[in-house]
Design goal:
- By secondary structure, this protein is of the alpha+beta class.
- Strands 1, 2, 5, 6, 7, 9 and 10 form a 7-stranded mixed sheet that branches. A 5-stranded antiparallel sheet has the order 4-3-8-12-11, with no helix packed on it.
- A hairpin with a 5-residue loop joins β1 and β2.
- The longest helix is centred in the middle third of the chain and has 15 residues.
- The termini are far apart.
């Protein structure tokens, strides 16, 4: 059996010894996402608030690994340990955030901490980030979303209502884009190599596949 060494949620899962990764990359962990985008009075992005709700298998694994007193409940201290572990594992990958303005990546201030909880026996993670520099809506097409560049975790929005924009200004448009994978590959065929098809981890294709909110303001 071979195990990934990525310091991501994949590594967090592998720490338990439960997950193994075959040669072909595909998601092993699944989560439903909610994203709240807050716009300030200057028509700039103030913050992104993320909430992820993980699948039953991953949630059960986390419970078994961090339930130190074996009471099948994660208390406050145990949940803090879960949040701290995931916080550290996501740092290398910008917390799976997709934030682009005018086609260029936007630097985000890392969250000081993550908050973990259990909701109907499913692990939830919450955190908030802010742009490192002012991010005005008029600076070009703005895209926000989530994706895992390792292809290990599939995080997606169940419906368009899971992406909310607070204080959305007049004169702007918003659109939730859900790319078709075949079309995305076709459009980017020239940039893909043979190596991608044998191991797509670490490429930009998961970003291309990602569901994203696009905001345009004049």
């Amino acid at each position: 059996m071979c195990m990934k060494t990525h310091t991501t949620i994949a590594a967090f899962a592998l720490a338990s010894g439960t997950f193994v990764v075959p040669a072909s990359a595909h998601p092993h962990v699944f989560a439903e996402a909610r994203l709240d985008v807050t716009i300030n009075s200057a028509r700039s992005v103030e913050s992104l608030r993320h909430v992820w709700r993980f699948d039953d298998l991953f949630s059960s694994t986390v419970l078994l690994e961090f339930d130190k007193n074996s009471d099948l409940i994660l208390d406050a201290a145990e949940l803090t340990e879960v949040a701290t572990t995931i916080h550290g594992s996501l740092a290398e990958y910008n917390y799976f955030q997709l934030v682009m303005s005018g086609g260029k990546d936007v630097k985000m201030v890392p969250p000081a901490k993550l908050t973990a909880g259990f909701d109907v026996d499913k692990l939830t993670i919450q955190f908030e980030t802010r742009p490192e520099m002012p991010l005005p809506l008029g600076g070009g097409n703005l895209s926000v979303g989530v994706y895992d560049p390792t292809f290990y975790t599939a995080i997606d929005f169940v419906d368009d209502a899971s992406i909310v924009v607070a204080r959305f200004p007049d004169g702007c448009t918003r659109d939730v884009v859900r790319p078709d994978p075949n079309q995305a590959i076709a459009r980017n065929q020239g940039t893909l190599t043979d190596a991608f098809f044998s191991d797509p981890t670490g490429t930009d294709l998961s970003k291309i596949f990602a569901t994203r909110l696009e905001l345009n303001c004049k």
